[in-house]
Specification:
The complex is a heterodimer of chains A (150) and B (472). By secondary structure, chain A is mostly helical. Helices cover 56% and strands 0% of the residues of chain A. In chain B, the strands form eight sheets. In chain B, strands 8-2-1-12-23 form a five-stranded parallel β-sheet. In chain B, strands 16-17-14-20 form a four-stranded antiparallel β-sheet. In chain B, strands 3-4-21 form a three-stranded mixed β-sheet, with no helix packed on it. In chain B, helix 1 links the parallel strand 1 and strand 2. Classes of the chains: A mainly alpha (150), B alpha/beta (472).
């Protein structure tokens, strides 16, 4: 769904929502000797990079989920995540609701974590080293311009 | 456009179609105002991090979902539209696609001969290159070898690119959120500068919410401002309106503006070429993220007959993490094998049309499902992918967790019959004298071929018709 907001949208999580996101994130990404856990990666402040761009309905549902995750026992959060991840085992239309939850949860947590926003060694740990050599390109433009001027 | 004067034409949407049309209309002497919901970036300002690219360059902060969440719809929202975030694959439609378009719409110019001059011009407007095999990565090698082992036919890709400078160590995966060396031939660098040089005005961060056709003009209302800020409504007036906001944008805008009455086909016949990424895990590094992102496409007549094609693709870590099923340690372990993943995607030529609707709150609803035929096409493609991976030494196969809709088409189908189409063969809204469209929303069905070049070609044809209508 898309919508048309005229009022400014919230940019940051409340401390409760941030705690909920960390608890939810740690179920998806618990961390190990090579990778930090979601909460260790210190990403809740970076939700400000996503929240303004989300549809209001999606944002409200997500914030509600994060608030709930702040208070639910860990086993309940795990059960929720497992239920959503297991959408293939459910009949339609229940599977559709679970798919929606699955994509919503994974979309937020994985976007934050695997973008390696704080250069916390996440990209090196998985071998992601793609680059664009902008300096070489800009230097080539400069050279071309100088030659043109001559 | 001079101060206080009304533009001749307002173009809503600055993507492949909108900017091609704006360039042509501006060159013909018309005053053009271009309104785009997304932001305007350049090679210095495109988002670097995956999270920022998704959030800033797509509607919904990354993805939108259809009603049963079986498809993640990726709808560009940026000056340049799909040409900023696509892989810039440029193919002409074959006789199969054009014949189907002509038979479905009754529009005669959907033929190889009639389209040829417009394809020629569209190709002339950009740099086109066949992706060099010199720098191909192992994902491409696996794709090529797997096709060879199984007797499938593939072909090198033709891409809208000027010079990707692979000798500098560049990787095209980094340009999925905008090309930082201006190699990718987006309309933001190929069409917009020319349109502006000829007097067109571009305003970014305007979400058009209402269009009205009056006896002597059109009126367009939009919300102005960047996401997250308090946006202010503003209204513009012009002689004509070109809708180039894509299948979902055009359909929902017209429906929201009350144009559904008397146009039963509005929002119908919506297609997406559902795409499913499948992964093979290899012992040796594949490094699918390095170098050219894609080298080959399937060119197998059997695949075309069966209604699918395979693509040699990959994506950044966040997207791959979303697609790898599961969670927790197991998922994390698989992500550590990111550099060992090969990826082939099946792209389905979908036959079951979806529908774009608008609910009482004005929100867009995307109804789209695969029917039995579409599912069998997907499965046939997945079987071919399994053959490719297994014949090239994959140790494990993974089916992606979500379908993806990137090629968003239809909703405002072109045709002669007002009951089954929305736009007439002169690119004017049925029953209108001042509203036009020529983007992917006018496609009457799914072609099964990447649509970008054909959108550009049709837009050039439409620009001639719109310029002629303006002179009357």
């Amino acid at each position: 769904m898309t919508d048309m907001e005229t009022a400014p949208s919230p940019k940051n999580l409340t401390p409760t929502q941030a705690r909920g996101l960390d608890r939810l994130g740690d179920i998806l990404i618990p961390g190990d000797e090579d990778l930090p856990s979601f909460s260790q990666a210190n990403l809740t402040g970076d939700m400000s990079r996503m929240l303004p761009y989300m549809n209001e309905a999606d944002r409200s549902s997500l914030l509600l989920l994060m608030t709930a995750c702040a208070f639910l026992p860990t086993f309940a959060i795990r059960a929720l995540v497992a239920l959503a991840a297991g959408w293939r085992r459910a009949p339609e239309p229940v599977a559709g609701v679970l798919r929606m939850a699955n994509i919503g949860i994974k979309g937020v947590v994985h976007s934050l974590y695997w973008s390696d926003l704080h250069h916390g060694g996440i990209h090196p740990a998985i071998g992601y080293n793609a680059t664009i050599n902008e300096a070489a390109y800009e230097a080539s433009l400069k050279t071309a311009n100088q030659q043109e001027e001559k | 456009m001079t101060a206080n004067s009304l533009p001749d034409v307002i173009v809503v949407g600055a993507g492949t179609s909108g900017l091609n049309i704006a360039r042509e209309l501006a060159a013909s002497g018309l005053d053009c105002l271009i309104l785009e919901a997304g932001g305007r970036y350049d090679r210095h300002t495109y988002p670097r991090a995956e999270i920022d690219g998704s959030a800033q360059l797509f509607w919904g902060g990354g993805v939108e979902l259809n009603t049963d969440a079986s498809l993640a719809i990726l709808r560009p929202k940026v000056v340049g539209g799909g040409s900023i975030v696509n892989q810039a694959l440029m193919d002409r439609f074959d006789d199969i696609a054009l014949d189907d378009f002509r038979n479905s719409s009754g529009v005669d110019f959907f033929s190889t001969e009639a389209m040829a001059p417009y394809y020629d011009r569209a190709e002339h407007n950009i740099c086109l290159q066949t992706v060099s095999e010199q720098h191909r990565n192992r994902n491409a090698e696996i794709f090529d070898a797997g096709f060879d082992h199984n007797g499938y036919q593939n072909a090198p890709l033709r891409r809208a690119q000027a010079d990707c400078r692979f000798e500098d160590g560049n990787s095209c995966i980094e340009c999925l959120f905008g090309c930082r060396i201006d190699s990718k031939q987006s309309t933001a660098i190929t069409a917009l500068p020319k349109a502006e040089a000829d007097g067109a005005t571009m305003i970014a961060d305007v979400e058009v919410t209402l269009v009205e056709e009056l006896p002597d003009k059109v009126r367009v209302t939009g919300l102005v401002g960047k996401p997250g800020t308090a946006r202010k409504p503003q209204t513009w007036v012009a002689s004509r309106l070109v809708l180039a906001a894509g299948a979902i944008g055009n359909s929902s805008l017209l429906l929201r503006s009350g144009f559904g009455q008397g146009r039963p086909a509005l929002g119908c016949e919506f297609y997406v070429h559902p795409q499913y990424m499948n992964f093979g895990v290899y012992d040796e590094p594949v490094n699918a993220h390095l170098g050219p992102l894609q080298n080959y496409k399937s060119a197998d007549p059997g695949f075309r007959r069966q209604g699918f094609k395979l693509e040699n693709v990959f994506a950044g870590p966040s997207s791959i993490a979303l697609l790898i099923p599961g969670f927790g340690l197991e998922h994390q372990q698989m992500m550590k094998k990111y550099a060992h993943l090969a990826c082939v995607e099946v792209c389905v030529r979908d036959t079951n049309p979806g529908r774009i609707k608008v609910n009482r709150k004005g929100q867009t609803i995307i109804e789209k499902k695969l029917n039995r035929e579409d599912v069998s096409r997907r499965e046939a493609g997945a079987a071919a992918i399994r053959n490719i991976f297994l014949s090239t030494g994959a140790k494990q196969l993974i089916e992606g967790d979500a379908g993806i809709g990137l090629h968003l088409m239809g909703g405002c189908a072109i045709g002669k019959d007002k009951k089954t189409s929305v736009i007439d063969p002169d690119f004017t809204l049925h029953g209108s004298r001042r509203i036009h469209s020529a983007d992917s929303s006018v496609f009457p069905l799914a072609p099964g071929i990447n649509p970008a070049l054909t959108i550009a070609a049709i837009s050039l044809r439409a620009a001639e018709a719109i310029a002629a209508a303006s002179r009357k």
